[in-house]
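Weekly modeling sync, notes
Attendees: S.R. (lead), two postdocs, one rotation student

Agenda item 3: backlog of single-chain predictions. S.R. asked that every request posted to the team notebook include the full sequence so nobody has to chase files. The rotation student volunteered to paste the first one in as an example of the format we agreed on. Action items at the bottom.

Example entry:
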Amino acid sequence: MSDPKPFGILGLPRSGTTILCSVFNSAEASVCLCEPHWAMIGKRMEPLSNVVLKEVFGDTGLHCSCPDEIFDVLLEYGRSRGLKHCGVKETYRNWQKDWGANQIINRSDLSFLLAVHRDPRQCFASLKQQVRVWGKWVWDCDKFVKSYAEFFEDLKKCGLRVIHVKFEDFCKEGFVCLSKKLAGVADFNFSQKLNPMGKFAFGDPKAKQSDKIMPECGTADKAMFLTAPERQKVDGLYGLYNSVK
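Predicted structure, as returned to the notebook:
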């Protein structure tokens, strides 16, 4: 039995990485952990621990002494289950790269890194809207612009096989978009029964509060959520966004 191939998913917060993670979890013989450095225990956020591992993987006897070991533990889990692919999804924050993002970017044995991109104005406006859920504002515009630009620089320097996906393209094409991007790189058989947007059903009264406030991806005019100076700064990122092929 061959060892599972590790992969990573990385993007700015609110860029669509969580939805892409759920899609990869729908693939046969594949598992992808969503920001495994933290896990919800009741209403608390707890750092990764062996207790959390037991909740994620079940009683497998696997142990993890620190967050940097999660890939090794995940591959061991995949090996014991006969999986083909094991992935980790993290969000990119330029002031916290020593946690999740560095773990992915510095992992030289990844079969590929899926970089998720989203229209910068859509992405930043969605971050601002999270104030309604978090009750505080933790991303100023300058920090966002810096992070967005540094994300592209880190991707160029990482030395990994990077596959770029625009979230807006995925919203339009779904599985077809991913299949095209992954052709010749990895064999993923995505479940056609999964509606990846179902978890993020915009306007659905049954959706979670954090999802109900998020306007439709790629279609809503976000100008009302941005001040004029913010819009001018974020619009300057369009050159980077449009460079994604």
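Discussion: group reviewed the output briefly. The CA atoms of residues 19 and 197 lie 7 Å apart.
Action items: rotation student to repeat for the remaining queue; S.R. to check formatting next week.
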